[in-house]
Amino acid sequence: MDKQNLSIEFIKDFTSFLSWMPSPDEIMQRTGDAVTLYDEMLTDGRVSSLFYTRRNATMNLPLEIPETGSKTVDAYVSWALKERDIRKWGWLLLTNALKYGHHPFEIVWRREKGLWRINYLKGHNINHYWYDADGRLYYQDMEGQKLLDQPFKWIIHRHEGDTHNNPQGVSILKAAYWAFKFKQLGFQFWVTAAEKFSVPSILAIFDQSGDPAEAKKRAADLAETIAAISSGSTGAVANVKEVKTLDMSGSLADFNVLITTCDVQIAYALTGQSLATNNPTTGTQALGTVHEATMQGFVENDARALSYTLQALARMCVELNFGSDAPYPEVVLDTGDQATWERVRDAITLGVPVSKSKLYSRYRLPEPEDENDVYSKPQTPLYPEIQSEPAESENDFADPGKKKVRTIMVLTRS
User: Fold this and answer.
1) Phi, psi (rounded to 5 degrees) for 240
2) Distance from the CA of 406 to the CA of which of 202, 258, 372, 379 falls in 20 to 30 A?
3) pTM value?
């Protein structure tokens, strides 16, 4: 391992003479396009909204890094592996893996305080990566072919793939491609038809009598007269039996059905359901809940896979600085079902112990820096405090022969 090269970029951005590298993706094989056609799919509003809905649902999960038990390692982790950095790396890795199936990133390090920490992750042209039969990663550009086997320099996140069986992974957009393409062609047809038939053609019908040549001449004169009549103007044509318009009345009404059908298929491909991501005209609340749970299954699967990749980054950081025997931290994206805020509030009110750290992280509450930074609403006791005082004067009561005690209700605030 050459630590001197950890802080430089191994791959420089040169224009390649190759437009794309061979891919086992069936869509690539049939269309002849590069994997970047999935970027084109994200220009569709429906595809884009569902893609980022799924991505954001994963990245918004609570993130935890439990302590390892080693004071040295834990101090390094709190300094070099801050949550905001891990979320940024996760955002890069997950977005590109969901889009392309996989995307290798080059790790560029920097040395501070005598320790190595990640400076940034560098992504390169996805079309120039390829794998051999043993799952080894290569990069092809104008300088030639590079084997990317440098330790601590590469991190790869895959969706539904691994190093040996399917190193390219599987894009979630793959299953939505044909619905997207059909929708795209439907739009092109609709624009063409609307342009062609938005101004209907006018046909004049007249009775033919006499010489056919004379009829042709009269038809030409009528066509010239009708063509001269512009929108909003009037005119009169003699000896014409009927005037008709040729249009596609009613033929374009089914276009909305076509687009809706395509959008539903795209929703199933990207989220596994349709009710939770559409505006359905039918369906029960129970059915919608089932559909939402189906999407949650997709999110949990994405979160677990991403946790493994982020944990590999954390392990690199620890191993590079403290050796392979040092304990390395786990990176956990909490996919468990969350109790509602109302349930947590009721539990606190009833005195059920609740983890303060979980409360701040899970519900994104701003944690006070110190006691001076704490603000809480003054509490009113559930029951007023009852105090008894002796009467100031015997005359205050109906029976002056007896000493009375006056009960005063005092509301206190703590």
Assistant:
1) -115, 130
2) 379
3) 0.67
